[in-house]
Amino acid sequence: MAEQTSKQLPAQRAELRAGTPFRPRLGDLASDLAENGRIGVVVRVPGASSASYHLRPPGGGREWSAPSSGDTLRPVPVPVTHVSPLKRDVIYDHRAQQAALPVMVHHEDGGMSESVLILTPRQVELYRIQLDHIIEQRHQAREGNR
Question: Region annotation Disordered: residue ranges (predicted)?
Answer without folding.
Answer: 1-25, 50-76
